[in-house]
Amino acid sequence: MSLTVAGAPPVALRTPAPPGPVPPAPPEPATTPAGVRATARIAAVADGRGATALPLLAGEGPLALRRTRGTGAEAGVMLVGAMSAPLGGDHLTVEASAGPGARLALASAAATLALPGRGGEPARYDVRLTLAEDSAVRWMPEPLVSVRGSDLRVRTRAELAPTARLLLREEQVLGRSGEEPGLLRSRLTVTRGGIPLLDQELACGPGAPGGWDGPAGLAGHRTLGQLLVVDPAFTASPPTAAVLGEFAAVTPLAGPAVLVTALAPDALRLREVLDAACRTYGW
Amino acid sequence: MSLAALLVLADGRFPAGGHAHSGGAEAACKAGRIHDAATLEEFCRGRLHTAGLTAAALAAAAALGLDPAVLDAAADARTPSPALRTAARRLGRQLLRAARATWPTAELDALAAAFPRGAHQPVVLGLTARAAGLGPLDAAHVAAYESVSGPATATVRLLGLDPFQASGVLARLAPELDSVSARAARAADRARREGPDALPAASSPLLDIAAQAHADWPVRLFAS
């Protein structure tokens, strides 16, 4: 798979080959007339010797998983797109859990393309992250590209124990270069100790509620993204709110977390803003 | 419900402090994103379907009698901008003061005791509607209407826009106001059974970013 995101380098090609032996092909996903249903499952646990083990690493269909070289206590997992997905009608799920004290970094090898299905039915992409006490998870996938005619609903949920740390990046690209976007609806819900920390819904593209691209919407921008950092250390020293130019802001949430939100003309400039934020607030 | 009570609560002259807030219109006018009646209408439409829907559902849920503390936490999670959280609590405090004088009830007294620094305005609005004998759909209508009437009247002052044109914008949005309010009331009903996750969390990144920038301005006409 090779594709070009507006203004960005070909994302599939810049990913280094993962180290280690090639694991067996993932099992065939369940295919229904409506589309593919597939779930990737990851469990990370502290191995008691200062590192993180992955007792569960199970990809399925378009969601193949590779273990990557970790750093220090952190285990790395790469989501490798084994097919162009999700197509309309597909339902993909990624479930990752980090046990007490575990350190996990999740990335994806290439951008995810939302593509139209034959029947025009929506596709679903669910991500569920569960973080136990003292765990730390970095969820840093490549951009999601909403291709013309597609209809995708993304649901991301992260449930954190009060002492867990989370670094989460979301980037949405509306249409390939010069292309009209599809319909993209996404919701991000983060709870900490069962209390809601962040709940955000976004709808854009043809068919979204009125005004999505207007002066109270995207105002013509074609990429948007956010970086969320949840860290109990922010309780003692919360980050201060800041404005990063006209179209990005740093907003401390009501709990120990900071959200950096940015709109940009293209994926490259969006990544620059989020990378800078990551160096300041992340790890 | 009493239609007259609804008119009292929704009246722009109800002394709840809303006139000091532009709902993001001041920042949008300065940036040139609102410059005439057509761009005001698109701004209002975008705000109605994002912040307006979210506020309307919170108000409807509070009017239904859901726990205000749970709803206030849900409102916090739906308001990433600290500038907007501060504005929402300030507006909530001012509305509660007016509401307790207008429709005194034990529920409003309890809310004031539980949130000395103010609860989020839509939560207070829902409990105020309840105190006035109004229902969840009424509360949703008031919240949805406020989400567009604030920017519309502010733009008249900011740009010198013809007030007839501003009223025309609001009138053209009426069918969408009705549908957003109905959707909010249905979500509130679901939240009673399924919990606050059933409430919408529609948001606009640009409104959040611009609100933070606006709060930093040394001189401004509106508080938000």
Mind sketching the topology for me?
The complex is a heterodimer of chains A (283) and B (224).
Chain A lengths: L29 E3 L2 E12 L5 E7 L4 E9 L2 E8 L9 E8 L4 E6 L3 E3 L8 E9 L4 E5 L3 E3 L4 E10 L4 E10 L8 E10 L2 E10 L18 E8 L11 E2 L4 E5 L4 E8 L2 H15 L2
Parallel strand pairs in A: 2-6, 5-7, 6-9, 7-10, 8-11, 9-12, 10-13, 11-13, 12-14
Antiparallel strand pairs in A: 1-2, 2-3, 4-5, 13-16, 14-15, 16-19, 17-18, 18-19
Chain B lengths: L2 H8 L14 H6 L6 H28 L3 H10 L4 H21 L3 H9 L6 H11 L4 H24 L3 H10 L1 H21 L10 H11 L9
Brief write-up:
The complex is a heterodimer of chains A (about 280) and B (about 220). Chain A has about 280 residues and is mainly β.
- Helical proportion of chain B? over 70%
- What's the β-strand tally of chain A? 19
Radius of gyration of chain B: 16 Å
Structural shape of chain A: globular
Number of strands of chain B: 0
C-alpha-based Rg of chain A, rounded: 18 Å
Do you know the CATH architecture of chain B? Answer: Orthogonal Bundle
Q: Hey, roughly how much beta strand do the residues of chain B contain?
A: under 5%
Distance between the termini of chain A: 30 Å
Report helical residue fraction of chain A. under 10%
**Helical segment count of chain B:** 11
Cα separation of the termini of chain B: 32 Å
GO cellular component, one term (chain B): cytoplasm
Subcellular location (chain B): Cytoplasm
Keywords (chain B): Chaperone, Cytoplasm, Nickel insertion
GO molecular function (chain B): nickel cation binding
